[in-house]
Fold this protein.
Amino acid sequence: MSKKKFIDLDIILDLLCKRDPFYQYAAEIFTLGDTKKIDLVTTSLVFANVFYILIKILGISKAKELLRKLRIILTVVSVDEKAVDLALNSKFNDFEDGLQYFTARENKITIILTRNVKDYKEKDLRIQTPQEYLKTIIK
């Protein structure tokens, strides 16, 4: 099984903003990534959206500092026109979720970690919360 896990925006924000009660699970996921037990992947779009949200909360300098640290353990993949076309013609109501789903699929990532499990309409990838995923692995 692939070590790659797609990380959704909300999980990154849970970690960087220390949002309770989700921070603990996000921190465990990123620790697994930092120790190379899993490979964490997200899109350039997620990075841009996280930056946009963080600058409103923390300012530009702190937002960049946090994202530089995060980038060390996170692989960033591009959203391409195929993912855009697939998302536009899918059952997804949330276009961003569709983009992430199809980008993950095109990059052969079989698990998406998110707190918005119900928003993912397609089911050929495993969609889990960090808490659900952590229960499936042996530490």
User: Anything to note?
Assistant: The longest strand covers residues 39-43.
